[in-house]
Amino acid sequence: MSTLSRIALALVIIGALNWGLIALFQFDLVATLFGGQDAFLSRVVYGLVGLSGLICIGLLFKPNEDTETAPSRTDRRFSNPNYGTEFGEEPDFKKETTEKKTDRSDDNSY
């Protein structure tokens, strides 16, 4: 997520909290901090929150970068399967067991 997107998201959250305060307690925090609803600074904050909302609309339709660039753990498991012994050739263990038997018979010849 870019820096601009993070700033926009933070301002949208601030705006949402301010609207929650207005709805629940009829208290406008931005107007209280910056000198009323008609004050220049309050209008700037309201405008920035509105622009941030427009930027965040674009975030709704943006594909998730995490899933696009790196496959998840389950995707990696299915994208490159290892068919070692299920469909491939299996090692011949009969040769190894016969070789061990011949080696042991040589050791017992004293």
Would you give an account of this structure?
The protein is mostly helical and 110 residues long. It has a domain at 3-64. Helix content is 70%, strand content 0%. The chain contains six helices and no strands. The protein has helices spanning 3-25, 29-34, 40-60, 65-69, 73-79, 93-107. Helix 1 crosses helix 3. The protein is rod-shaped and about 100 Å long. It starts with a helix and ends with a helix. The mean pLDDT is 79.
Describe the structure using short key phrases:
single chain; 110 residues; mainly alpha; rod-shaped
Q: Structural class of the helix and strand makeup?
A: mainly alpha
Report the principal-axis shape: rod-shaped
Distance between the termini: 77 Å
Following the backbone from N to C, one meets helices and strands in this order, namely: HHHHHH
Mean pLDDT: 79
Q: Unreliable segments (pLDDT under 50, ≥5 consecutive)?
A: none
Radius of gyration: 34 Å
Describe the protein's topology:
Blueprint: H1 3-25, H2 29-34, H3 40-60, H4 65-69, H5 73-79, H6 93-107
Brief write-up:
With 110 residues, the protein is mostly helical. It has 6 helices and no strands.
